[in-house]
Specification:
Layout lengths: L1 H23 L5 E6 L1 E17 L2 E5 L4 E6 L6 E2 L4 E5 L2 H50 L5 H48 L1 E3 L4 E6 L6 E2 L7 E6 L4 E9 L11 E6 L2 E20 L2 E11 L10 E18 H5 L6 H10 L12 E5 L5 E5 L9 E7 L5 E11 L3 E6 L7 E7 L1 E2 L10 E2 L1
Antiparallel strand pairs: 1-21, 2-11, 2-15, 3-10, 4-6, 4-9, 5-8, 6-7, 8-10, 11-14, 12-13, 12-15, 13-14, 15-20, 16-17, 18-19, 19-20, 22-23
Helix pairs in contact: 2-3
Length: 439
Amino acid sequence: MKRTWIWVLAIVVVGALLAAFRLTRKTDPEYFTAKVEKGDIRQVIEATGTINPVTSVQVGSQVSGMISKLYVDFNSKVTKGEVIAEIDPKLFEGAVLQAQADLQNSQALLVAAKANVAKDQATQQQNKLDYDRAVALQRQAVNSQQQLDQAKATYDAITAQVGSDRAAIQQAEAQLAQKTAALKVAQINLDYTIIRAPINGTVVARNIDIGQTVAASLQAPTLFTIALDLTKMQVYAKTDEGDVGQIRPGQKADFQVDAFPKEMFQGIVYQVRMNATSIQNVVTYDTIVNFDNPQLKLFPGMTAYVSIPVAAVTDVVKIPNAALRYKPDLPAERVQELYSKYGISTQAPSSPTAAKQPGASGRERAVPKPNGAGGSDTAVVWKLLPDKSLRPMQVHIGLTDHTYTALTSGDLQSGDELVTGATTAKAESSGPGLTPQRR
């Protein structure tokens, strides 16, 4: 019995030791790799934009009133000068009639003023003769000095009245011009009650209905939006500030829309506008892409996913960008030891050599970090050797398509395995009989 208990105790102790060893044991890491390939790389700038007409005009109203008639609707074709809507003209017709009456009154006042001038000029001429006769008689001592003074006073009074009549004529003429201008303004306002199309095109927006009141007191309300020619359109692509330096007018651009997901449309870069837009510290610029829309398949306002090829290389060795971002889970001393063993400069970055930067379209792109010498094309990748050990390799890289990066110089060959990630299996501490969990 004592020997049996000793064996049982020994088995329990061994089991406990095995369990403890299992809890603390760490297996060799399992590496995920990707092969170095050979092929072509196209550097493409991606952006999201909106389709817009080349020219669109917002048609408004310069007068206020109620919409009485509508002649067009959405998607209607219009020609320049065509009547597309009318505002109730009754108030403006009344204003024209009042202005016409005021003008006629001013014309009558001018005629009366001219008649007064003619009458007073005749009286002035008669008084001038009386005064001259009084002067001659006074020289002959026939008239008294009082009669001469009275004749002179009468002549001076009528002369002053003629001057006043002439001023009244000028005033009547000024009032006539004022009433003429008022009539013209009233007539223009009446004409503005008829809304006409300013260009040939298509009505893409209608913001009014019959019976709706238009208030144009502060600013002209937009009644319609007319696109000039929907067969010639543009994409306003929001381009990341890090990409605009590579875009030039005349470059080809491809884009897709959600309405036709399997179809690719082509366009030409027209310009990169310098007006920056900043949203949550992300700065973008509008890149304008012109394209033809002969079948009118694409509508204004559609979202376009634009790709602009800016550079390309052919038949080059390609490194997966995931390998550029990989950093082994090793102590810094071990990493430096491996760098020294394989002749890599200690100034080479020990962190992942390609950082993740979000672009305007939300994607992540690999950007090599500068080394100590100030260059930006040096990176370190980790090659998996046949014995499952790692070897750091310093390479020079060039063009990238955000999935692969071209190798410009280095010892890598097509088919080499580069580490892109790793995982280590470890026994769980929650008890025996559970499978290891990867972390």
